[in-house]
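#help-structures

NK: newbie question. if I give both the sequence and a SMILES, will the prediction place the ligand too? trying with manganese (II) ion
OV: yes, paste both and it writes out the complex. here, I ran yours:
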Amino acid sequence: MTEASCAIVLCGDSNPDIALGLAVTIYSALANLSDDCRPDLYIIDCGITDEAKRRLARVAAGGRSDVEVHWVDFDPDVLDAIPNRSPFPPVIFARLFMAELIPPSVRRVVYLDADLLVQRDLSSLLLLDLGGSPIAAVRDLGIGSVGAGDQQRAYFNSGVLVVDTAAYRQAGIKELALDYAASRSHIPYGDQDCVNAVVDSWVELDYSWNFLMGHVRFDRTGAWTTREEMARLYSQVKRGPVILHFTAHSKPWSPRQTGPGSLRWTMWLIRSRWFSWPELVAWLSSWIFMSLVVHLRLRLGTMRLRLRTALRNRLRSQLM
Ligand SMILES: [Mn+2]
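OV: that's the protein plus ligand as structure tokens.
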């Protein structure tokens, strides 16, 4: 039996945090990938440093010895020309180009963001029937829907995408999305808003394929969804979704982050051997120190607030 090839697309720039995130995404995806699949990584290079490339290639080979890493050059002038009216760096738009940057013989790819932890085998995504749709993705419950009236449809998160490259090219997704970007004065979620606006039909994946951690940490009230739905999501985190996606302010490399999954992410960072042992000790020490500072400041802030309220109440009761 011949091994199927498993094409995974990623994207990075000169940001060292993104390089670190890519290391964990790549290593965890490869270490959990079925032996029946031969992994092909296509990394869209928007300015990744040579040192980071050397390390990422080593991390990838550590995850799977038979991996092939393809560095895909991306013209920085093209990126500069994109009207980026979003709070995100221009690099996020590079993924719109994926279907034309990889060889046309690659019919199906899985795109992965750089802020993921893959906990199980991804290979079944490559066999998924998209029924002619260009994309399969997970619904972004935080944003919900796009369009109005009859045109309203579910909004997907673009951190994990299964892409039928031919259908994507044929539908002109990249061109339409860039036109959309040019027509707007503000696009809060960058390229994700653009693809959502122009993709008519997409296949919905189970939430486990792209579990949005930002929601878990920052919206415990369930304001964006029902309590029942929230409870269901929490129980899913416990069971272990296939992919944890550290969205919004839940980036596990940030010392502000102590949300669920960040310790697990750190364990995978250690396993990836991105750092040598002395580097790891230095990184962990500064991370722990910064976390303490951040939490101490938070705690002090809360104490000050409580003290002020108590004093105000006392003063008020004396005046009355
Ligand atoms: Mn992301």
